[in-house]
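Case study.
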Amino acid sequence: MSIDTTAPAETASDRAIGDEAPKKRRRLGVAVWVSGAWLLVLSLGALLAPWLPLADPDDTRAGVPLSIPTAQNLLGTDSLGRDLLSRTLYGARISIVVGVAAVLVSAVVGGAIGLVAGYFKRRVETVTLFGADVLMAFPTLLLAASIVTFTNSRGLVTVVGVIALIYLGPTIRIVRALTLSIANREFVTASRSLGARNGRILRREILPHVVPTLMSAMVVAVAGAVVAEGGLAFLNLSVAPPTPTWGAMIAAGKPKIDESLYPVLAPGFALFMTVLSLTLIGDALQRRQGRGLDVL
Amino acid sequence: MTALVTRLARLLAVVLAVTFASYSMVSLLPGDVVVAVLGETSTEADRQAAREELNLDDPLPVRYVQWLGDALSGDLGQSYRTGQPVSEAIGQRLGVTLELVLLSQIFALLLAIPMAILGALKPGSFVDKALSGVQLALLATPGYLVAVVLMAVFAVNLGWFDTTGLVRFTESPFGNIKSLLLPSLALGLEQVAVYARVLRTDLVTTFDQDFIWYARAKGNSTSRIVLHHALRPSSIGLVTITGISIGRLIGGTVLVESIFALPGLGRYTIDAINNRDFIAVQGAVVVLTVGFVLVNFLVDVLHGAIDPRIRVRTGL
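After joint prediction, the assembly is written out as follows.
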């Protein structure tokens, strides 16, 4: 590394206009728009997959096995001759549904618990935080894998449930911290002195201040949940085959990587783009709100 | 000192709760516990023997206390599938997982620290933006995807590494590192972005403090300022996040261990889960969570070592 000879004055001005300092509301960058476009196209593709001119995702005669991209199979085929574009789009259904549903469930449940813990404090708070600590001490993927295996159910609901469980602890912690920072503000005291009951204060005064921050954390959390679902699927513990999922597709492509990488790259690229898009959008939302709650 | 004791008591409570939860897991299974543990094909005599050995006639809390006593003396029970004592099996595999975690952290920090310094020297510059782009890309690539792609490129196509399997350190230290290189790189790359982002932000804050200006005014070179003055006070966040990651990784190596067929603790646990070897799952989960809690405690202690102000405040 060469020695930086920048004059201090210049560095100072760099810093003054650097992205660390709060300043005028920034416009959303190109990257955020591209991310949004990707998510939109992917969601539409997943939603409309049955009506698109695609091969059936389970049809083993869609093309020559392990073929490279051709006009017939735009992303190539897997080792059984199934169309990878079709499977990737159908796989997006599981990834999107599981990611969004799991984070929503943990946001609602964890949000309610965190709100109560941060507002009533004392014993409720102690017990709740302890519960969150215990939950977070388990190795996440192994916890999810145990539950799926031992309850013997590989339905969508179970998968959503176990991934929601992974995010429950962190969500409780975030919402509690947010609630704590809001519960002592003047408008809460004002509301209380006007005779509002706890339920009303929580709903009308505190919740509206918690939701925006929680939302931006949730966008990033969806990215994590999509990755977690992929991990479960990779271990063959997500939604049961033949339903295609990205993780299971990557796992299925692995033994044949000496012949063709497309069965790994097609779902892998979709996964990469989705996680990248969600992260970029989540980051942009957090920056807009001027706080970096990087907890999830 | 009191803060440390409170913290320790809290961690002990978490360990107790986690072990109790994973212990009762077996009892919460639907149907007869013994049938679940031994399988449908077991004979009635075997079931009766297992019932006695697991003390299933005692109430749950009593059993738990007995089990805890055994566990503390290193006896985590015996796998009914393989007949091997669980603690012995874990002992054979823990080393591989720990080595994997350690190597992955070395990779992650070796990449993240220079990235963070380069970015922080000129925030907002082209270099900074390019680096944060690279970090974002790394952040968006799950470890299992990286692992498969690394394997395809470096093991299958270039043939530089074996695709699977572990060379024991005792056989060949070099071969051992080589066989763990790709898996630990896959694990490490996942962490690089997080580490670099945290350290960069802290460095930018530190660079603006008076003592750095003073050091600069005295004519110190930038590299000296970074290495001797700025890095230590900026490293609290990095130490915290590294600690958390290590704790998480001890239980998070499952996928990479499965991909590269490494005989580590993660794969042992997932195999036990798949075979419904509950006693083994129980033991492994206990070891993993206790490890997680311990690492977190160490991080707290390290905070005091890095920043004397924290030592004073918390009485560490």
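Observations recorded in class. DSSP finds 15 helices and no strands in chain B. The two ends of chain B are 5 Å apart (CA to CA). We will return to this complex in the next lecture.
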